[in-house]
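Changelog-adjacent note: as of this version, every example in the card shows the full chain rather than a window. The one below runs 79 residues end to end.
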Amino acid sequence: MALATDKIAVITENLTDAGLDADGIAKCLKMLDSKDLTALQKFLESYRKGLLDSVHRYSKQIDCLDYFTYQLRKSEELL
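Full-length structure tokens:
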């Protein structure tokens, strides 16, 4: 765990926990260093949207599996 006094380490740890790879973290740190907060915000919003799209995709897949297993329990004729 990063020390709270080491801001870069804390930010890096947070971005790592959020799933960003080394290149994404480097981009974020570069934008922070150059104080381009608008670009950083756009980058993070785009990354978040990608994560949310993945959640929705996996949720739909889970729903399909749930429906299929429900149908299997309801009737063995599907096999």
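Structural remarks: The mean pLDDT is 92.
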